[in-house]
Amino acid sequence: SVSGYPNTAATGIPTGEGTRVAMFSARFDGGPMEKKFRKVYSILRDHKYDILMVAADAGESFADLTTEYLGRLQEEQGTMLAVSTKHYGEMTASAYSSHKELKFALDYE
User: Fold this and answer.
1) Which residues are 2's β-sheet partners?
2) Integer Cα distance of 1 and 51 in angstroms
3) Sign of the CA dihedral running 58, 70, 16, 4
4) Which member of 12, 63, 82, 83 has the lowest number of beta carbons within 10 Å of its beta carbon?
5) Neighbours of 53 (CB within 10 A)
């Protein structure tokens, strides 16, 4: 089984060296789905994929990281990986919501 995930089988993941940048776009609510995709993010990063997922640590800004990552996607013609959960893409008061990330993707397709 994969560490922390019973009933899953470990599979070989090829190296991500040389792949283009990708960013997970998700509704960050601290729930089980976010935790699962943060684990996926870690696995891909450990396999040398150029993968981005906003996680603001002390002294960092969620908004600044989102802007930086979306800019990188645009500049490098990267890929947005939408984690399409029940509440993904809902319009919220945040200027950096998954709704705004989808709008960005559509504007710069």
Assistant:
1) 5
2) 24
3) positive
4) 12
5) 22
Task: Find the mean pLDDT for residues 2-18.
Answer: 70
- What's the CA gap between 22 and 28, in Å, rounded? 17
Percent of the chain with pLDDT over 90: 32
Q: Are strands 79-82 and 51-52 parallel, antiparallel or unpaired?
A: unpaired
Distance of CA 4 to the CA centre of its chain: 20
Burial of 27 (0-12, 13-18, 19+ CB in 10 A): buried
pLDDT tens figures, 44-73: 999 999 999 988 665 667 778 888 998 999
Give the Cβ contact number of residue 108 at 10 Å.
Answer: 11
